[in-house]
Predict the 3D structure of the following.
Amino acid sequence: MAEIAIKHVAKRFGGFTALHSIDLTIADQEFMVLLGASGCGKTTLLRIVAGLETPSQGEVWIGGRRIDHLPPRDRGIAMVFQNYAVFPHLTVFENIAFGLRMKKLPQQEVERRVTRTAELMHIEQLLKRYSGQLSGGQRQRVAVARALAMEPDVILMDEPLSNLDALLRLEMRAELKGVLAASKTTTIYVTHDQVEAMSLADRIAVMHQGHIVQAASPVEVYRNPAARFVGSFIGNPPMNFIPATKTANGSWTVAGLTLPGPKSDKHKIEFAIRPEDVDAGDEGLHATVRVVEPLGPHTLVTCDVEGGLFRAILESNAAIAVGDHLRLAPKADRIRWFDPETTNAL
Amino acid sequence: MSVVAEIPIAAPAARKAGNWLLVATVILLSVWVLLPIYLLIVNALSSPEEVTAFPKRFLPSFDFGSLSFFINFAGVGRALWNSVLVATLTMILSIGFGAPAGYALSRFDFPGKGTFRFLVLMTRAFPLPLLALPLAVMFIRTGLDDTAIGLALVHTTLALPFAVLITFSLFSGIPVELEEAAWTLGCTRLQAFRKVILPLALPGIAASAVFAFTISWNEVFAAAVLTIENRTLTAFLLQSLGESPLYLKFAGGAALVIPALIFIFAVRKYLFAMWGIANR
């Protein structure tokens, strides 16, 4: 059992606050992805859990044991680094065996575990090589095998795929998901790549400026963003936002269209809709087409709606030309509303 | 059209002139450095008679008369031993103090780090002759004068800045993630250093040690001022330069220069790294 509990963890570097009082619980065997743009504090949080950084305040618990005062080696964790950190002076075998030798396991057990994890990562033919003789993808496999061989309670991964080329990344992503699910470890995985996050995670914690904005399942994060930032960060192209003005209680005017919405004492809120959640038809938002990008499965249309940019994903067989006037009807159950002051969902 | 036609002619001409200037400068500098060494070697490998004869030979006759005379010259063996002893002590002291300082500079952030790095370099700004008299007086008071360890201490102050800077650049070139990976795999800070950093840094540390050795080996001023009985080879040669025959001077000079040249040549890669050219 290795549940991770992060309680009120904050980190300040001089006058700069990298993390503001983070609270996050990660269930045993859960795959948690920390997602955010660079500088949002996701790596700092991971390094605090690893023990490579000390929190300015707060506690970290793993499996019911408080570990924030312990050195990394006593935390029951293994880590995979962005640049792999494969020891250049040791063979692949000795790299994978490194942690096992530190634990003073018998030679037989060391060999068993190295062979097993090497087979798991498909690098059994590389065991005699040095890191200088490996490609980036192979080094990545060695780094993952080295972490798995420790049979840790928790695996921490810091952007492990970001140095690989696109095709290899796709392949490794699927493989990692399988291997980690089978290993029954709790995983914290840091990335700035939303596709990676969506495809791997049981739960995504979206981070922004040192806060966790939302921690939920990938679909929940995509469908029901808890804040404007989540909607604008996740999804490619991102969510569309249009200012809404109150007409009556629970009724709002959005670009000339009157829509039912949340009851609020505010006069102005924001209407939001995903690009794929609009239909072109006879009624809806008045849009003037600016750019048409046929992408194969569908067509991305960038329009003007009330002087603001609005992106819509439409059927690829729709005959749309630049300058056309469209009516885009938002699907009622997909409309989201945000408070422009707090930026939170309403 | 004429303008277009002129440029391709003018440009190669200018480039050619630039090339000539470069080649000439390289030749001049090479001659500046290599000619004395060449003369030194030719004369050291000639018989005593040939050294004083005229005209000179361009190729050495590989007569070891001068060298064997030098080796058997009274006091040379002892001076040579003193030189090796002092240089070895200097090497141990400067790596012993310099490598930890270099490691700290590369891995830790502490207040005054920039100032410290600057001060390390500043120690080279004080001319040794200025310090020699007070040093000599202090050494006599503490009984350190005319001892190998006393001279080694002075040489260490000369070699230490280089030891710090070379090892700093060396450790900076080793990714901190390697150390962190070792920590997460069960190492203490010391174990991680011993099992991961040291094997990677060892060739560079050895180079830095050799450089410290060479600095001490070549140093003549402090050696001449601070030793009387226990002269190092440089001090000994300086002392006996006036009254000794020409071929002894050549043989002694060669004995000093050749080891230093070989050492520096062996570690040249790391000396470039000192200024962060190879790393970072």
